[in-house]
Specification:
105 residues; 5-stranded antiparallel sheet; Alpha-Beta Plaits; alpha+beta; 4 helices
């Protein structure tokens, strides 16, 4: 088990679909890591244009293997991970707030 700092670029054309799946239970109900993915996206912050960063606990090798296979690679690209000691709070707008605003447009 390790905690990772994760940085990724979100795919703009897919953020409406990502938001829907994050909020309608589709991802949350995914076993074994759906709830952790939802929690991670609630922690994620936009740190640069089109880039989000968050901390996530993961039990697999390579890091976020299952999360990438099932969710992340559909909606995120250029995913970078590095092991960290504990969860980090990044500066920036909350990704979920951003998604909610985009969804209202």
């Amino acid at each position: 088990m390790a905690i990772y700092s994760v940085k990724a670029r979100y795919i703009e054309e897919k953020i409406a679909e990502f938001y829907q799946k994050l909020t309608d239970g589709t991802i949350q109900n995914q076993k074994p890591d759906g709830q952790e993915i939802v929690n991670s996206m609630k922690r994620a912050k936009i740190t640069e244009p089109n880039v989000i960063q968050w901390s996530e606990m993961c039990f697999c090798s390579p890091p976020l293997k299952h999360e990438r296979e099932t969710v992340y690679t559909q909606f995120l690209e250029d995913i970078e991970t590095k092991v960290i000691e504990d969860y980090v709070e990044y500066e920036g707008e909350l990704f979920m707030d951003f998604l909610a605003k985009q969804n209202k447009k």
